[in-house]
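FAQ
Q: What does a multi-component entry look like?
A: The components come first, one per line:
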Amino acid sequence: MAITLERITPLRGLRCRACQVLQPADTRYICAECYGPVEPEYDLAASDANALREKIARGPHSLWRYADLLPVAEPASHFPVGWTPLVRAPRLGAAIGIANLFIKDDSRNPSLSFKDRPVAVALARALELGLDTIACASTGNLAGAVAAAAARNGLRAFVFVPATTDEGKIAGAAAYGATVVRVLGTYDQVNRLCARLADEEGWGFVNFTLRPYYAEGSKTILFECAEQLDWRLPDHVVVPVGSGALLTRTATAAAQLRQTGLVDDTPFRIHAAQPAGCAPVSDAVLDGYREVRPVRDPNTVARSLAIGAPADGDGSVGIIRASGGSAASVSDAEVQGACALLASTEGVLAEPAGGVVVAAAKALATRDVFDDNGSVVLYITGNGYKGTLDAGLLKPPIAADADEFRAAYAEVLG
Amino acid sequence: MSVTVRLATPLRAAAQGSASLSFEATDLGSLAREITARYPELAARVLRDGEFGRFVNVFIDGEDARFLDDGDLRGKRTVEILPAMSGG
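Then the predicted structure of the entire assembly, as tokens:
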């Protein structure tokens, strides 16, 4: 059945990244000509930057303030997503050797991760198409985001995760009423199962059948950073890389901000952060920007980044190279130390992916990657309270006695 | 050596509507040549320079072909060709 959609966004169609053919924005999710990935394309040439800035400023305190740069209109039923704080991080900066450091705290989204952004846009598309079920393959955070969005909109949800995913994380998805399917195997094996189900079940699989829309939501994190910096791109951004979609869409966002004249064409370097136990993109960058070699059995505490065969891996490497960026991969011990440092210096409790970003930024600073003293933004994409927190810092309980307190905590009291 | 190639819906139009096809092939290279000879429209979508392209993932009996030596198909039964997508 042909579906006619009324749009208020300047969407021109879907263009294939491989063969470059522009196609109608119907229900297709891959290129009809060559099976390549398709991405929304917009009519942006006629934009008046000042008028657009004013319109955005009048918009909602959510990612929908950038509706002119998104492929679907805001659904009336959804809760606000995005418009998270961009804060200076001087104490963390001093600790890791970066003078002009900012944190984009995307752990403050409705389901406590940045995945609420792509899901908001995919959900809007699912509602447009009249779908009654949404689904995903996930390393954990996406499961929560899909489950929450489905609950908020009265839809059915199926989420598929590796069986090794933190129970605390996916218990949240189950609490939202989603059917949580734990699959024995790696994320990439879950992904293969879901590619087949997406083809056969007719659900709105956010990272398959709704992918061209889903991925667009990730642009909004950089749109916000630019607006929060008074319409300027940061000099550097450090991006955690799982599938690579956040990194590639950060580059798309920068291109659209420049194309519309919302920001000037200043240097903007994109750097990748990955855990050493699953670093196919960082390794490719550091090995001379070569082709990505997939990792068969990822092994890292940063399980939300444990994607061994990242679909946007080669695209990420190309973007990093073109932007003049670099990459780092960091050990589990560095990740855990960096999580604790971020929490204790800036009051931001991140999941291990945040520790990967902080530790990677420190490694990049050590290599003088930020020697221009420019602004450095770290994407903190998930909240520490979602996973299983390390209780090792807790001391044994004490009796309700002042002397016992002073004795037990003498070291802290000095 | 016969293997069954499963096709996702968007690819079936390039194979006269078939959901699966049978080929005689001993490795991915010979499978690619067979596809080119018998289904040129399908080949145009999934092959680049005679090899499976970077925008598709190929699974041999459920294993990602990139992790298998030489794409050996001897003793294997099913090849799946899926779009390269992942989420997180």
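Q: Is there any commentary attached?
A: Sometimes. For this entry: The helical segments of chain B are 9-12, 28-38, 40-46.
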